[in-house]
User: Fold this.
Amino acid sequence: MSALLAASIHNAAKSGLHVALVDRVGDSEALPRLMAQPEGVYADFENEAALIAAIDAYAEGIVFSGEIDPRITILVCTDSRRDACCARYGFSTYKALDAIADRDKFNIVQATHLGGCRFAASLVVMPERQRYGRMTAGQAPAFLEALSRGEIFLPAYKGRTDLPEPVQVAELAALEWAAAHNRSNAPVLVLPFDMPDDPAEGHELTIRAAVRDAELDIRLRAQTYMVQGNCGVVAEGGGSDVLRWRLDHLTTTKTKLQERLL
Assistant:
């Protein structure tokens, strides 16, 4: 890509917009197609200046004009330049999905780095913003079947990217509890809570979630982990300490119906 297009993508990323470059296998067009997610809008542009203008405007919150793609889009990281793991595991998973997916329901695409080679194969499902990790080629049929039913594929689910980290951890804990207690695919409602302003190592946070006829108290604990974002960082011995929330304990609480019966 040109220096101007690279700069536009870099500036968009600095504003908090994730830009994933999609490889359209067999397409020889010089300019990439631009797709906005979760809006599901896509457009092709006559020249690079128009493409750059659309990216810059989208970074400012203005969605470009285009056509709507109602399908579920599945981004699969196959980024060989940054991650050997994503190339190795991501491509096999992409090929498995692409081979069996119903083209009327799913848009399966390869994308650049989605973050965390330790989670390869890494995927993002749009427009739901669901993130999946360590997805294998063998899981492809069950994964697509779950998405077709509007359900989460729990074995590889890592959370929704538009939710705060503690909510993601609490939701996943509640979903796993539901699956273990004959409530598979029951909707999970994470109730409002006060987010700590400046959590530190060892900080505890209790979140309540409702799953059908049960309420859960989910205790999280803040813990520091060494994070190495890709294989290159690992090879260089780099990385950084990052504070993350992890599940500490989960307990069930009495529902209002149970309280009335006691």
